[in-house]
User: Fold this.
Amino acid sequence: AEIDVRIEGLQGDELDNVRQRLSIAAAADRTDLDDALVQRLHEQAANDIESALQPFGYYNAEIESGELRKTGDDWSVSYRVKPGPPTLIAKLDISVEGDGHEFADIQTALTNLPLKTGTRLLHTQYEAAKALLLNAAYQAGFLDVKFETNELRVNTEAQNADITLKLQTGPRYFFGPITLELDKLDHDNVMRYVTLKEGAPFSPRQVLETQFALSDLNYFDTVEIEPHRDQTQDGRIPITIRTSLRKNARYQFGAGYGTDTGVRGVIGAEFRRINDYGHKVLTDLRLSQIKNTVSGEYRIPVGDKATDNLSFTTGYTQEEIADADSRKISIGTALYRTPGFWQRRLYLDFAREYSTISNVTSRVDLLMPGITLSHSTLDDPIYARLGWSTFLDLHGARNDIVSDVTFVQWRGILRGVV
Assistant:
């Protein structure tokens, strides 16, 4: 059965919320529809519309219900709505008590609350204000924070509202002793990626950042961080970090066919930890009818970020096209670091290439130092809907320093999602 519901007098979020809360609008999905049920839902519609408008500050809406009509198995009905004047915030009484009442982040949250006297009452802003205060205190280490008073009083006749919020922060907590449980990896080497510091204020954000940092190393299958609140002493909470290792080796196999390459295949391997210090080896072999490549990389972790490493690479490429063929041998080293928000790569590559065209063979040597900078700001690193990223690369060679030619090359890429 179809139920055609028309709503007049509303638009935007108010209209969307009314449609979601209106029982008769959602009744078409029910299997037990009959005349009595639809009539009962129609009589309930005014209450549904009133309650759906209250979160937007409209407590005195006028609702005119049209006639419920039935044609065959289907119904139709319309509702005309006059929201009326909005309810305004007349009084705000917001205070913070406890050890965190003068804490800077909490005071900043107080000054940035979306609630203002004389403005329309919006329940979303009221809930956002409570969440902002709670989160500011919780992230600062006040784990027992709570509202002792949490009142929203609405005078529907005067069309105004009074809000009273009294936040009790309780004591501030700090990180206690940190225990890292792991196998087959050097303890001190892994600890440098742990951002938690004994004696520092307890921060749930720091706990999450440490969990992400350890997971990004690609050594562990699981990373669990457990604060022991029941073992707290002098406000210090002991922390246990438990890890379980991933399989050491990962292999990749693939095959395909392309009109420009013919039959092709790939074999790759990654050895995530070849020693206690987490050194990695990556190999890759790609074969086709016109081009074959083999490459290898030895990666040494450095610094305190998962992206920071010292890399040594080597490779060989052989390609045949018509009456020409080429062979290229390359070696290189690169240092990846992340100072601030930019990822930086300093590298030095050497390549020797042999080319044969019409039975004439030539050789070119290139020693190329370079630098790469990259940065991204995205709302979601996997399914980005808003943000931007940039990539910059500069490298070159001189014919009097190992190389046979002199050149400078730069490349830039800027991408945006809006």
In short: The chain has a mean pLDDT of 93. The two ends are 41 Å apart (CA to CA). The helical segments are 12-21, 23-26, 35-53, 104-111, 123-139, 187-191, 204-215. The longest strand covers residues 360-378.
